[in-house]
Amino acid sequence: MGASKKLTEAEKSKIDAYKELGLSNVKIGKKIERSEKVIRNYLRLGANYGLKNPGGRPKSTSMHTRNLVIRKASNKCTSARAIKSECDLNCSVRTIQRVLKNTPHLKYTKPKRKPALKPHHIQARLSWAKKKDDVTMMSRNFGGGSVMVWGAFGYKKKSKIVFLNGRQNAAMYQDVLSNHFIGQMRDKTLAQGAKT
C-alpha cells in the first residue's frame, strides 16, 4: 500500500480546530475523510509535519559511484558485470544496470551475432586447409619480442640508428650518447668543415 497524500493547509487548520473542540482522532478523520494515522502523525509532529524524509531505502550507490559507472560505460562498449569487476564496486550488477538504464544519453544494445557457417563454407575452409597443409602459416597479432632503438636528428644532421639491449639506465644512456651521438656529430662537423 502506497503512502497517502500529505495534508493540505486547509486540512491542517480543520484538524487543529476539531482538536480544540475535543474530538478524537478517529472522529476528526471521518469528518475530513482522512485516516486516523495521518491525523495522529500530524498532531504528534506539529510544525515538523511534511518536513521529514519521505522514506524508502537509501541508495546503495553514491553520486561518485554513479558518475564512475556512467563514465566507464560511455568510454567503451562493455557490460555491467565488467564495469563492476573493473571498478571493484560494492553493489550488485543489477544496480549498475539500473544506473545505466536511468541515464538518458546511454542506449543499451546487444552485439549482433555473426551468421553461422553454412555447409559449403565449412567445405571450402577444409579444402583450403588441405591445399595449404605443407605450408607453415604464422601470424602474430599480439606479444612477441620488442626492439629498442635510439636515434637523433637536427635541422641538417641526423645520427645513425642504434639498437639497444634491455632496459636503459642513466649510465647506459650516457654511454649511448658518448659512443654514438657525440662522435657522429663531431665527425659530420669535421667533414662539413673540410668540404668548405
TrEMBL record:
Q: Give start and end of each Transposase Tc1-like domain.
A: 66-131
One GO cellular-component annotation of the UniProt record comes to:
nucleus
Predominantly, its location class is: nucleus
Q: Where is the Tc3 transposase DNA binding domain?
A: 7-50
Could you tell me the superkingdom of the organism this chain comes from?
Eukaryota
Biological processes per GO annotation: DNA integration; DNA transposition
The record's GO molecular-function terms, alphabetically, read:
DNA binding
One of its Pfam families is HTH_Tnp_Tc3_1
- Which InterPro entries does the entry mention? Homeodomain-like_sf, RNaseH_sf, Tc3_transposase_DNA-bd_dom, Transposase_Tc1-like, WH-like_DNA-bd_sf
Its annotated compartments are: Nucleus
UniProt name for this protein: Transposase Tc1-like domain-containing protein
Species annotation: Strigamia maritima
